TrEMBL record:
Keywords linked to the UniProt accession: Membrane, Transmembrane, Transmembrane helix
Name the record gives this protein: ABC transporter permease
Source organism (scientific name): Bacillus wiedmannii
Transmembrane segments: 6-27, 39-56
């Protein structure tokens, strides 16, 4: 038994996250002349979002950090 509405929401959110990551990766590649810098900036921002989300889940006092991540 598949909940179609939930399945659609999960796919839409996944697609939007993919588009956001692609957008700031493209932005960094346009700004930087060196592909290593662009890749490192994009990866650093992605990891930063992941870490802030994880830290926000650790404590109620740090839950505000989840609002600044993707």
């Amino acid at each position: 038994n598949l909940n179609k509405e939930l399945f659609l929401k999960i796919n839409v959110v996944g697609g939007l996250i993919f588009l956001v990551v692609s957008a700031y990766s493209f932005f960094f590649s346009c700004i930087c002349n060196d592909e290593r810098k662009a890749l490192s900036y994009s990866a650093s921002l992605t990891i930063l979002f992941f870490v802030t989300d994880m830290v926000g889940k650790l404590s109620d006092k740090l839950e505000w950090m989840r609002n600044i991540s993707l």
